[in-house]
Amino acid sequence: MDQRLDEFARLREENLAALQALRLQPQDLQRQGTHPAFGAVSFSQLLATWATHDLTHLHQLSRIMAIQYRDAVGPWSAYLGVLHCTGHGS
Asked: Tell me: the pLDDT tens digits for 42-71?
């Protein structure tokens, strides 16, 4: 696990350095590209998706970590949403 976290940190650092090297200006965030499934998307949307993608993984980790307490919390389980989340379906 430590090795994977170290690799993630290294890759994220490289990605952020590459992003900073672009020296983006506010108007650059409105630049658009074409996604094969979604059509026109802005750079701002792409960056927001990147951040939200990370949050999705943190959410998944919290659900996995919480499962070990499912029985231990007793009656409070009903009030702990992380124990009842079934994922990211629509």
From this structure: 999 999 999 999 899 889 889 999 999 999
Whether pTM > 0.85 for this model: the answer is no
The number of folded domains in the chain is: 1
Distances (CA, A) of 83 to 1, 28, 51, 54, 87: 23, 41, 24, 20, 11
In a domain, 77, yes or no: yes
> Could you identify the residue written with the tokens 């919480």?
66
The helix/strand/coil state of 13 is: helix
Q: Which of 75, 71, 78, 29 is nearest to 49 (CA)?
A: 29
Residue 63 belongs to domain spanning: 43-90
Question: Is 54 a domain residue?
Answer: yes
